[in-house]
Amino acid sequence: MIRTQRWSTGLCRCLDDPGNCLVTCFCPCVTFGLIAEIIDKGNRSCTCNGAIYATLLSLSGLACLYSCYYRSKMRAQYELPEAPCMDCLVHFCCETCALCQEYRELKNRGFDLSIGWEANRERQGQGAILSPVMSQTMTR
User: Fold this and answer.
1) How many helices and strands in the chain, by DSSP H and E?
2) Do residues 62 and 69 touch, judged by C-beta distance below 8 A?
3) How many C-beta atoms surround the C-beta of residue 32 within 10 A?
4) For residue 50, which of 13, 29, 68, 110 is within the disulfide window of CB 3.0 to 4.6 Å?
5) Half-sphere exposure of 115 (CA within 13 A, CB side)
6) What is the residue-level pLDDT of the chain in tens, covering all 140 positions?
7) How far apart are alpha carbons 52 and 74 in whole angstroms?
8) pTM of the prediction?
């Protein structure tokens, strides 16, 4: 039986982090880039991920299809439930809220999204206190 953890915050708790909420409302590509760099373990930079998201958003308006893939990937890494509904529906209907929730989840798991994957990995290696789940995911 697979043990499923709970999200640390609810989908509609965007104002728990008003700064991130504001950035995500006006420039979701920034928040998405920060999230994707951590979830991808640094395989693509924040700038690259954010540029892909911005391009998809400007050309088709359907960047949510790209971002829902990362929500699914994040849920698999942390054994989170597909809640309140399917990942693609969450991103299609509530893109800003979904990105804010994912940002808060990573932050609550000990990541400083503003410094990127490599700096988080170095910080973890220098004995900074990080959650056990983060330590497991920080190895390559």
Assistant:
1) 8, 0
2) no
3) 29
4) 29
5) 11
6) 455 689 999 999 999 999 999 999 999 999 999 999 999 999 999 999 999 999 999 999 999 999 999 999 999 999 999 988 999 999 999 999 999 999 999 999 999 999 999 999 998 887 555 554 544 445 44
7) 18
8) 0.85
